[in-house]
Amino acid sequence: MYQENYPQNFPTGFLWGGATAANQVEGAWNLDGKGLTTAEVVKKATNRKKMSMDAVDQVTLHQAINDHTTMLYPKRRGVDFYHHYAEDIKLFAEMGFKVYRFSIAWARILPHGDDKQPNQAGLDFYDRVLTELEKYQIQPLITLSHYEMPLDLTLKYNGWSDRRTIAAFNHYTQIVFEHFGQRVKYWLTFNEINTGTWGFHATGAIDQGLSKQQQLQLRYQSLHHQLVASALATKQLHELYPTDKIGCMLARMQTYPASPKPEDVRAAQLADQKNLFFSDVQVRGEYPAFMNRYFAENKLIIKMGTDDQAILANNPVDFISFSYYMTTVTKADQDGTAVGNMATGGRNPYLKESAWGWQIDPIGLRITLNELWDRYQKPLFVVENGLGAQDKLVNDQIHDSYRISYLRQHIIQMKEAIKDGVKLLGYTMWGPIDLISFSTSEMSKRYGLIYVDQDDLGRGTLTRIRKDSFYWYQKVIATNGTDL
Ligand code: BGP
User: Fold this and answer.
1) What is the set of active-site residues?
2) Where do the catalytic residues lie (predicted)?
3) Is the CB of residue 143 below 6 angstroms from any atom belonging to ligand 1?
């Protein structure tokens, strides 16, 4: 009898949808009072194969500030969601979305990052977006900070490296919760918080010219400030709306040992722990001992405020969300999280890779879901998963069978994880509409189920075209994941 007592399919009410980020879709970078953001001073990466965000230094920063065009800075253009939001949300509704994950640009609400009063036009824009979503009963899932922050806080404090950014952020989150809280049930704090160890794109702190050791010190200190700010945002939300749900968001870099050699297995375990450190803090409320050891052995001193530990302990998140694209391989001679095309860990000979070198591993998603559920026993949410590819427009059609195959295989593994007993709230695939790539600032790295007529130089009509994957995903949602 008990053998049948496990889930057989996606639960009723499973939240199917898609995810975007303000700095990759909105455009309107300098309209209606919005301030410049850290994302809008990053040029297109030079090496498309690696996940190499162009580093920002004082020179490139001041060049960007004085350049009022969009040509060199694709994230200033996005795909003009700012003016197309009603059309795009209608297309999401046509696919049957139950949820839409998007981010609020802090600099639309507080153009300088710490303005006393909010920019009303910024509030009005997101009110219009929420009104469109409500028309189709699509749940909003809002990310408070998705790889951008007001550039003025970089100029004033060097971003998150300065503790004063915590107060600025929580002033912003209080305004957002108070203004939109009635209409939003699901929130995320920092997108892929763990990638703050990579620098400027996530911390707004310029660290060019520092030694590796100084960079790590600055980045982990910045991340500590974000972890405190995240916990304070959780506190704010629960005080205002006790039944609303707020989650952490991790770039889950599931990694495998390069061989059964115990040293490789241990190296992979450490790489995994350094990734899960961030969700450990946000779910369990304290720094795990293995990271305190790592900091000590690497002479990294995290300066904490007297109340920081209590703030972290008393404000755990309600669910764990994460992005999943690939898995990596870790060898004993290198620890640390391998990124993108396994620059540090090496290739997995059993996996194919995307045109950008990301190794495709659907089974890895089932592994990750089981591990996260076992570790935290809190609901999970896959808030990014998708395939970046160079689509071809043929007679106004895009036959993206490769994207359908990628998504199908990952959905199959999510179903397996649910049957393993994992509590999964939903799935917002990455990029329901073509948008600007985060790591390379390219338009040609397309993720969308909807094609947008725009090239890497911003040329095009911005016309939206349904791809084959649009109709496929519509069917998946209509059958709650049974017809794949
Ligand atoms: C994640 C980011 C997303 C998205 C995705 C795809 O790390 O959270 O914003 O960009 O990566 O990466 P890319 O756009 O570099 O292909």
Assistant:
1) 384
2) 384
3) no
pLDDT tens for 377-396 read 999 999 999 999 999 999 99
CB 248 within 8 A of CB 279: yes
Q: Is 323 helix (H, G, I), strand (E, B) or coil?
A: strand
Rounded CA gap, 443 and 437, in Å? Answer: 6
Residue 374 lies in a domain: yes
Mapped onto helix, strand or coil, the DSSP state of residue 173 is helix
Closest Cα to atom 10 of ligand 1: 438
What pLDDT, in 10s, does the model give residues 232-261?
Answer: 999 999 999 999 999 999 999 999 999 999
Ligand 1: does its nearest atom lie under 6 Å from the Cβ of 251? yes
Could you tell me the pLDDT band of residue 335, with boundaries at 50, 70 and 90? Answer: low
Instruction: Answer for the pair 447, 436: CB distance below 8 angstroms, yes or no.
Output: no
453 found inside a domain: no
Distance CA 315, CA 317 (A): 7
In a mutational test of the pocket of ligand 1, which residue from 24, 49, 325, 439 has the highest number of ligand atoms less than 8 Å from its CB? 439
User: Which residue is it, tokens 């972890």?
Assistant: 227
Spatial distance between the Cα atoms of 247 and 381, rounded to a whole number of angstroms: 9
Q: Percentage of the chain with pLDDT > 90?
A: 90
Average pLDDT over residues 355-378: 96
Percent of residues, the chain, with pLDDT higher than 70: 95
| Total structural domains within the chain | 1
Indicate if ligand 1 lies below 6 Å from the C-beta of 198: no
Residue burial 26-63, b: 16+ Cβ < 10 Å; e: rest: bbbbeeeebbbbbbbbbbbbeebebbbbbebeeebbee
Q: In which residue are the tokens 């209590």 written?
A: 310
Host domain of residue 138: 15-378+415-425
C-alpha separations of 292 from 129, 227, 249, 297, 369 in Å: 43, 15, 22, 9, 26
One-letter amino acid of 157: Y
Q: What is the CATH number of the domain that holds 354?
A: 3.20.20.80
Q: Looking at residues 57-82, what average pLDDT do you find?
A: 94
DSSP state of 330: E
Q: From the CB of 154, is ligand 1 less than 6 Å away?
A: no
Complex prediction ipTM: 0.99
Which residue, judged by its Cα, is nearest atom 14 of ligand 1? Answer: 437
pLDDT on residue 257? 93
- Residue the block writes with tokens 């971003």: 159
Ligand 1 contact, 439 CB (< 6 A): yes
- The rounded Å distance from CA 348 to ligand 1 centre is 21
DSSP element (H, E) containing 221: helix 212-240
State the distance from the centre of ligand 1 to the C-alpha of 100, rounded, in angstroms: 16
Identify whether 178 is part of a domain.
yes
Tell me if 202 is assigned to some domain: yes
